[in-house]
Amino acid sequence: MRRLLTGCFVTLLLLLNTLVLIGPLMVFALLKLLLPGRYRDAASRAVMWIAETWAEIDKRIFALCIPTQWDIRGGEGLRLDTSYLVVSNHQSWVDIPALIQALNRHTPFFKFFLKRELIWVPFLGLAWWALDYPFMKRYSKAFLAKHPERAGQDLAITRRACELFKRQPVTVVNYLEGTRFTQAKRQHQQAPFKYLLRPKAGGVAFVLAALGEQLDAMLDVTVVYPQEKIPGFWDLISGAVPRVIIDIKTRELDPALWQGDYENDPLFRQYVQSWVNQLWTEKDSRIDALRAGRD
Q: Which has the closest alpha carbon to 209: 279, 141, 274, 264?
């Protein structure tokens, strides 16, 4: 009963926070559409400030109402006036509050690549649209075999989004697995990792091609839930998640990663894929060490 009451109370507070701030956010989003030049950029900065404030209030709600310990490691020297690429593993909706805990108001506000269906989420869908989050439509290989004209649409959306990101500092979050991890998915993929799915290099390759010169560094984020079961969002807001580890390693980016043609150069594509696979091999070992308490 206590967890039910906690979950309902936290849900109410999160909803109130969203309802209070969604109005001003949409006003500035409309101004961003209507105003020219530097006024549009000012409206965009206002949208980002409101989003950061919303996230900071959510952090306060979690701190006051739930016992979760956010064990944040690394991330020293982060800045608000530069751009980052964040690469993270993905297991649960709790991953997003974990990123907010670690990075909000330490880096520019996040830009996620979202599934198109999420635009219909009440309130949040509108906010994500106002924040210029790219909405992606993912097609299966079987669908693309029947409709080859749809191939490459996600990459085109990535290009258009990155053009917008060039106008101000940004933190671009890329979940290379493309979906949340489960053991069933890992076994279906026959993934060569213990805690990760196979990474997809195409999306991050096009982010690097569009923004490489603008990015100050890559933040290699590893989120670990020490308990046996991967928690869901209800587990978090009802107080059933005792501890979350957010491990951040700041890595320099090799300019060679964006100085090629990923679509048309097989050698360059292999180079980027090898880099991604090595990153994922190291992350799998890192998760194993963090879960075992060896670090």
A: 264
3-state secondary structure of 29: helix
Question: Cα-Cα-Cα-Cα dihedral of 199, 200, 201, 206, to 10°?
Answer: -140
For 218-236, the pLDDT digits (tens) are 999 999 999 878 999 999 9
Whole-angstrom distance, CA of residue 154 vs CA of residue 172: 16
Give the domain CATH number at 118.
3.40.1130
Scanning the structure block, which residue is given the tokens 């150069």?
265
- Structural domains of the chain, count: 1
Determine the structural domain holding residue 199 and report its residue range.
69-291
**Predicted TM-score of the model (pTM):** 0.87
User: Has residue 14 been placed in a domain?
Assistant: no
Is 236 a domain residue? yes
Q: Is the dihedral of CA 58, 62, 63, 64 positive or negative?
A: positive
